[in-house]
Amino acid sequence: MDMHLLVGVAVMLGLIGIAAWRDLQRTLRPQPELVPVRVSRPVRSGRSVRSGSPDIR
Q: From what superkingdom does this record's organism come (predicted)?
């Protein structure tokens, strides 16, 4: 076989191996789990904060 072809095949196999290794590492890493959190907000009197109008003084 041609030497350039062998080098090309070796490089391609190396790149495929690196991509597979990175994918394997990503799947084996423990994934963080989302936990629901309750947020208690104080009751505000007056106009709503979500009204959209700026507070001009």
A: Bacteria
